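Notebook, student rotation project (T.W.).
Task set for the rotation: take a protein with a known small-molecule partner, predict the structure of the complex, and write up what can be learned from the model alone. Partner molecule chosen: zinc ion. Sequence and SMILES entered below by T.W., checked by me.
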Amino acid sequence: MAKIHILGSGTPFPGPDRFGSSYLIDAGSEKVLFDCGPATTQKLARAGFTPTDVSSVFLTHHHYDHMIDLPCFVMVRWDHQTPETPILQVHGPQPTTEFIEELFGREGVLRRDIVARSEHPASQRVYQMRGGVLPRPWPDWEASDLVPGDRVEGKEWTVTAARAAHVQPYHESLAYRIETPAGSVVITGDTARCPEVTELAWGADVMLCCCWDHHDGDEQIDECVADGMVGNMCGPEDAALMAAEAGVKRLVLVHATQSISEPGSAARAVSVASEIFSGPVTFAHEGLQLTI
Ligand SMILES: [Zn+2]
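Predicted structure of the complex:
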């Protein structure tokens, strides 16, 4: 059995119940986090986890709604780690390795707090009371820049990356498929309907697909069409078309604006998707747990 925790299921604009992207896959002995959008660390706590429970983080891309809580997540993990806590693995499209170094390296933007917590006697005492041994080690991680087709193996899972069609060339964007003994989950990240993500999702048990908004009457989308830039996000139709074409077993709509999340609007999104995709369709809320 594996569990999917929907931690963040919103957009870059905060609403009372949703903000940014993050999903935790509890694959038994290891927990894998996909994206680390706003307040992920606190949303993890609400789901009953701490950053030290998480062994690996995969970023889909470097828009802030997908990675802005990574500094908080890594600092909390470092602050509360024990000698048994495994080294954090961070994977994502280029420039993930550079981004991590810029945050937590010896010259990184968080170096002052790392030094303060390592050297002030009061901080050292708190650290020792938690079982830490001085001198405090600098935060440690292993990071990699992934390209489409790359695979990363954990103890009981494998993640495969595919190109997502989002805002290239400004941000490289990846979709991921995680295979566990219990089944497979596809996290599309932010993408338009595209053959690479459809192929990645082939036969998956669950597909978490971005569903930004209804595309009808959307002036912003109309402007993008005029500029020839349409297609950097899915609405319910495109999410359902990919799910149907890929033959996934279940579609979960995530990354939703406040307006599409209103009760009537969310129901309409599910009904639109259900006309195209014959399997179960769920409109995700933050805190939702699914089992595979
Ligand atoms: Zn996004």
